[in-house]
Amino acid sequence: MTPRFSDNLRNPSGKTSSMTDRTAPKDLAGGLAVLAIAILYYLFIGDIAESSLADDVGAGGLPRILAFVLAGFGVVLVARAIIEGALARAPKPIVATAPSRDDDPIAPLPRALGFLGFGAAYVVLVPIIGYLPAIALLIGAIALFEGAAANWKTALIAAGGAVGYWAIFVKLLGVRQPSGWFF
Amino acid sequence: MMHSLGIAFDLLFGSPIILFSIAGLIWGIIGGSLPGISASITMALLLPFTYGMAPVQAIVMLACTYIGAEYGGSIPAILIRTPGTNSAAATVIDGYEMKKQGRAGEALGISLWSGVIGSLFGLVMLVALTEPLSWVALAFKPTSYFALGILGLSVIASMTNGSLLKGLAAAVVGLMISTIGTDPISGVTRFTFGSPELLGGVEPVLIMIGIFAVSELMMQSGSRDIGGLREQVKVRLPSLNMMNRLKRSQFIGCLLGTFEGLTPGGGGSIAAFLSYNEARRWSKEPEKFGKGSEEGVAAPETANNTVASTALIPLLSFGIPSSNSTAVLLGGLLIHGLLPGPRLFEQNADVVVGLYLGSFIATLAQIVVGILLLPVCVWLVNRPRAYLAGFILALILSGIYTLNTSLADLGIALGMGLVGYLMRRAGYPFLPLILGVVLGHMVESSYRRSLLLSGGDHSIFLEDPIAVGLLLASAVFVTLSLVREFRDARNAKLKDAHA
After folding, report:
1. Which residue of B has its CA nearest to A74?
2. pLDDT (tens digit, 9 = 90+) per residue, B437-475?
3. Coil, helix or strand at residue B215
4. Is B132 touching A (CB cutoff 8 A)?
5. Which of B26, B121, B142, B255 could bond to B446 as cystine, CB 3.0-4.6 Å?
6. How many beta carbons lie within 10 A of that of residue B132, not counting itself?
7. Residue B1: pLDDT band by 50, 70, 90 thresholds?
8. Portion 150-169 of B in contact with A at CB < 8 A
9. Does the beta carbon of A42 lie under 8 angstroms from any beta carbon of chain B?
10. Domain count of chain B?
């Protein structure tokens, strides 16, 4: 049966319980992460200095409340994931639902981290080699990572893009960009 | 009234407002037409460039980008069955059918025309409702502002996709991020780890760019090219006869777009799908829906363009953004030190009038600019994703550096990109987090000012009827959301049992 669009509105994630079974470990990891954030945040509240100008609540007052509230959410999320995992039955085929953003393909973690790594490498390299070469390297490296052929065309596009950005930011807008050994 | 007209006249002839509204419109159409680059991402990418602008120019450009992106999103929806923005998803159904029938130009023309109708209607509602509503905020005390912040966060957390608990957890994390930096009352530093870059706190713009744009690029890494459109397409605006036939579906789009724009968490995509369903229900030719119905394109496109204007009403009146795009616009307002509410209309009337005027200019210009830009959009849609991804990341990193010429800002934005990616994977909505960051200062300062007034007695929140009303409304939203979640889970289990 073709799903109605109103179904998609009421259940925007398009999830069915069989999908919920499959997502229980993900929910457990998410809940644990929430709990970890709450604990870490709480530990750092101790570093907040006392001030003679402080009000009744103090600089650490609201953070303390937030840490407890988040920890509470984390505990419930973890408990819910454990209960859902325990109640999970044998996996069933996923029922077709109307398309939603949640069903879009999501790049696996190593690939996504790889992509992010190029951004991080840019941050490290740009003060050393300068804006123009760093941007060219960034565009070229990402193009190769995303499947472009390693040829002159890719190199030219990367170099052209870098010159274009340099012209827009530095020359046209007059915005200073990091300079390094070369530029 | 005469004062506002005078400001409008000055802006029109004494400032480059037309230029900024057209520039925003062009940027919006181009950004919106790129699959995966939503209106909010297009606006977030523009944010760093607005720092150096006058407030009125920055806000006009951001608002016009929003208008342009709503039309831009329909271009790939109609041509390649891939909505450029979430709110164009409903346009795919009949838009792509029309394209298959060789009527792509007609579908684009209907989308453009309906967008203009929706935007104009939304603008009328925006002008008529915003200022009167904002005067309500004059009765607000610190306790009311605290309750308003809590209402905004709980409504967004309960209305966004996914579980309520995840939404609330995301909102709390957002509030936590907002506590980084110098405490506004005592002046002591919090969570800065000795880093001078964090003394002023984490700028919301970095969070928005990281979570909206960087995480989207990470999500799309390795995905296939979408292009492949080979034929030439020209926009064909509807004839007078067709305009007459589309009136009913456009009226439905206007009404539902207004309602959803005013509703926190509503947004363009829900308005578009609701309008599509209602237009089919009230149509004289419901059997044509799903098979290339002109009304099936007109209704959702009118609705999502209406939302682009009406979503500004709660934002400008109370400072509560109802969608990702309005959250970015709020970021733009805060960057320029503009606080929504009645004082915005008094102290920064030029910004408000400029926003109305710029949006009006962009709406009218949309017809011409939309037609002229179509070849550019089609060319961009056909570019290999491998190159586009690198160019967009380069734009993000170059743009962020212009904010404070600080490499630490790049690190924060990339880090938030990772957070956004992990949140998406784990099914956590990120709008509550953004809202937590944006509203965090208001929530904390109102909370502490209230307790300063009461000498630490929390019962002060129960002595303010507005605060009590808003907190009760928060509780109702959260309870209703919990009930809906339990009901959905039970229905899903029953469905599985029958399968």
Report:
1. B169
2. 888 888 888 898 888 888 888 889 999 998 999 899 889
3. helix
4. no
5. B142
6. 9
7. low
8. 161-162, 165-166, 168-169
9. no
10. 1
